[in-house]
Design goal:
Largest sheet: 5 strands, antiparallel
Number of strands: 5
Oligomer: single chain
Shape: globular
Strand content: 25-35%
C-alpha cells in the first residue's frame, strides 16, 4: 500500500452506551493513540437503525509500520482493552485494511 492505511473494525453497541463509549475512548484511549508514530486519526460511524447499533471504526495510519506500532506483530488482531470491551456485545476478531486513495474536504 502506497497511500495512508485505513484500518476498519466492526462491532455492535447498545444505543444507550454510545455516548459513554465515545467519552471513554476520548479520555482513556485517544491520548495513547496520539502517541503512536504515524497515527493520523480515527472516525466512529454508528448505524442507529437497530438496537444494538452497528459500529464501524476507521483508524488511519501513515503505513503498515504505524499500524504495527499500534497493534503489534499481528496488525489485524482486535485491540480492545477490557474497559472498552464491555461496550460491545459482539465484535470482529480481526480488522481489515484499505489503502486511502482519495480524501477530500468540503470547500
Amino acid at each position: 500500500m502506497s497511500g495512508p492505511v485505513v484500518r476498519i473494525w466492526r462491532a455492535t453497541i447498545a444505543r444507550g452506551d454510545i455516548d459513554d463509549w465515545v467519552a471513554t475512548y476520548r479520555a482513556r484511549v485517544l491520548p495513547d493513540m496520539r502517541r503512536v508514530e504515524g497515527f493520523r486519526g480515527v472516525r466512529f460511524l454508528v448505524d442507529r437503525t437497530g438496537d444494538p447499533c452497528a459500529v464501524t471504526v476507521l483508524t488511519t495510519f501513515d503505513d503498515m509500520d504505524a499500524v504495527r506500532r499500534f497493534a503489534g506483530d499481528d496488525p489485524g488482531r482486535t485491540v480492545l482493552p477490557d474497559f472498552m470491551a464491555r461496550f460491545f456485545p459482539s465484535y470482529d476478531a480481526r480488522a481489515t485494511f484499505h489503502e486511502q486513495v482519495l480524501a477530500e474536504a468540503a470547500a
